[in-house]
Design goal:
four-stranded antiparallel sheet; alpha+beta
Length: 145
C-alpha cells in the first residue's frame, strides 16, 4: 500500500516554541515578583497553550494513503469516499515574503459544515507541490477550480 508522509517545518515550530517559552517565563516571573495576579495567570496560560500548539506542529505530519488522508497528531482522518470536493487556495496573493503560509488545500467532507484545511507549512517536506500531486492521484475528479 502506498503511503506518503509530509512533515511540517521544524524550524518554524522552534520559533513558536521560543516565543511561547518567553510568555511562560514572564508569567512565572510575575508570580514570583507579584504573587497571584490575573496578569501572571494570563501570561503563563497563554505560554502553555502556545507550547501545546507548537507541539502539534512540531510533531505534525500529513499522511496520504490509498484509503484516505490523515493529519496527525492534532488533526483529522478522512477516507477518500467522504471527500465531496477540494480546492487549492492562495491566501496571500502573490507575496513571497510570508514564510509561514501562502497556500492551503481546502477539503470539503461529507457531514462537516466547514472544510478541512491543510496549509503549505504542514507539508514542507517533501513539499506542497507533491502534496497536491498525491491528492490529485486519489481525488482528481473532485477538484474545484
Amino acid at each position: 500500500m502506498d503511503r506518503v508522509v509530509f512533515h511540517s517545518s521544524r524550524s518554524k515550530s522552534a520559533f513558536g516554541a521560543v516565543c511561547s517559552a518567553i510568555f511562560v517565563a514572564i508569567g512565572l516571573l510575575c508570580f514570583t515578583a507579584g504573587g497571584l495576579h490575573a496578569f501572571s495567570f494570563a501570561f503563563t496560560g497563554l505560554g502553555c497553550l502556545g507550547l501545546a500548539c507548537v507541539g502539534c506542529f512540531f510533531y505534525g505530519e500529513v499522511v496520504i494513503t490509498q484509503k484516505g488522508i490523515e493529519k496527525k497528531p492534532c488533526g483529522f482522518s478522512v477516507e477518500w469516499v467522504e471527500v465531496e470536493s477540494w480546492s487549492i487556495e492562495d491566501i496571500c496573493g502573490t507575496s513571497e515574503e510570508d514564510s509561514f503560509t501562502r497556500a492551503t488545500v481546502s477539503i470539503h467532507v461529507r457531514g462537516r459544515p466547514l472544510p478541512i484545511k491543510i496549509y503549505d507549512s504542514d507539508a514542507t517536506y517533501p513539499g506542497f507541490a507533491q502534496l497536491i500531486t498525491e491528492i490529485r492521484r486519489y481525488a482528481e475528479k473532485r477538484e474545484k477550480a
